[in-house]
Structures are given as C-alpha cells and as structure tokens.
Records
---
Amino acid sequence: MLFGPYDRYQYAHPPLMEVICQLRFPSILSIDANEPAAFQEAIRQEFPRYSVHREQLPPKVVKKENGTVLEPQKPINNYSFISEDGRWKINLTQNFIALSTVGYQRWEDFAARLDRPLAQFIQIYQPAFFERLGLRYLNAISRRTLGLTDALWDDLIQTKYLGVLGEPDVEESEIAKCSVDVETPLVGGYRMKIHAGPGVLGGGRVKDNEVRFILDSDFSATDKISAEQVPEKLERMHQYAVCLFQGAITKELHEAMGPTPMAE
C-alpha cells in the first residue's frame, strides 16, 4: 500500500535536508508597499535576523484578441526573518508566508514554530482566506554517511520508487539517469507530487558531489481555506508524509538510520 499504517520514528542519522510549509493567500499589497515592522517586532525574539530580497516574478500569460502574450510583472519584496542559529526561516511576500528549516526533528516542534508567526500574521494582515497550503519534505539518503557504500539502492529503497533500478537484470552503475515522478490527488481533497531517484543535491545544501537518493514529496491543499482549518489540514499532510517515507524505505535502511520509536 502507498499509505499503509506506520509507526513514527526519530532517527539518529536522518536523511531529511529541509522541510518547508507555505501558505498562499490573495495578494495583500500593503505587505509589499511597506516594510513589515509590526510583524518583525512580534516575532523578533525567535527570528532576530532580518533581510529583504527584491524578487522578479516570471512573465504572466495574458489573453488578448489576437492571442496570448507574455506580460512582465513588477518585482516584489521577499522578507526573511531568520533564527539566531540560521536553521529556521520565515519568508513573507504579498502572496505567501512560509516556514522552512534545515533542523527538523519532529512535527510537533515544527508546528509550534509555525504557530506564533502565523497567528501574528493573521492578526496584523487579516487575510481573507488561504488559497493553498503546501508541506514539502526533502530527503537525501547518503550511503556514505550510513556506512552502506556496498549496498545497492534496490537494497535500501522499495521497488515502486526505483523505476528500472528495481529490475534484477539492470546494473545500477550503468544507469546515467533514472527517476520516478508522480502527481496525484489524495483522499480528502489533497494533492501529492513526488520526485524519487538518485541525484546530486544542489542549492548549496552540501559541499560534495555524492550521489544520494532523493525523495522529494510535496503535499498540498487548495480552496478557500479559513485560518481555523489550517492546523487540521497540515496535520493530515504530515500524516501522509510519514506514511510515504516509511513505505518507501527497506528494513535495512530503516535500521541503518538508527530508529527510536516516537510516542504519540
């Protein structure tokens, strides 16, 4: 089963590189027009470091009488509020607020870190509703880190995420590129996008060229979502993410990561 029942574990050697939660809302122009001083003051104890980046949006497709044209969009401000240790970050633009971390330990901690900034954002800017909730988990499994350099991906990852690498007559060393990419609706009005396959991490996340197994999962919900609905929907997406990861790894990989069962 793709989403069978699984227990939760905390790993001594987790492969999780980054977790991102983004909440999109109808444009609030005042966010772009003025620096968010009141919002910064409300979260400054947890996120004391501040920066702003002027971000160029891609051209917008506009329908006209003689067809469609690409119209340039004005750049917008992307405000960043960063924790003292640099491992947690809030991003705010006129269209979304997001929390990201490279120090994820457990869902309850992540949800608690999101709670205050989101509550302050809602109080200060009063969004009419949220258009999209997104929760993304980026895993990058390193055989070198886990002492599994002699193992094949077929030993560590379940066949359904391996493509042709899961076939017994395929030599892993001869495959230049192989990935599984899926986009599908889920029960409850959610959607899921998955990218799974060997690859090299970019974006400055690591300083080597080791080929890791990337399991990148993005869960989302879209509609007119009220602030009261947000916690329940994020919790459900987290549950999907747990089931996906546990269902994607083999017992050998699970044990190599040093699992400790988590109390519910």
---
Amino acid sequence: MPSFEFVKSSYSSGNGECVEVARNIPGAVAVRDSKRPGGPVLVLAPTAWDAFRGGLGR
C-alpha cells in the first residue's frame, strides 16, 4: 500500500503495540498493525472509523 500515508497515534507509548492509520484515501480509512507494516490492512468507510473511535472512550 505505498500510496497510503500511515501515521501512529500521538498516544502510542513506543512499546510496539500500536496501530497505524492512513486517512489520505478518498472515501476510506486504512488501519494496520505497526509491527507488521507489510501485513494485512483493514479499509473502512469513514463513518465506520468514526463510530469505532467514538466507542473507545466508553
């Protein structure tokens, strides 16, 4: 996925257990495991990503 610009959260503690998110995709958000950058990528609709993020603080 070379055209995806993945970034780690500013909340990442550096322990290697993070996800990376790419939001530069028209109509989608991509998520991957930072330990496996060449591994699988989840591609979500922005509304699904927003619902996921909304549920994290509960």
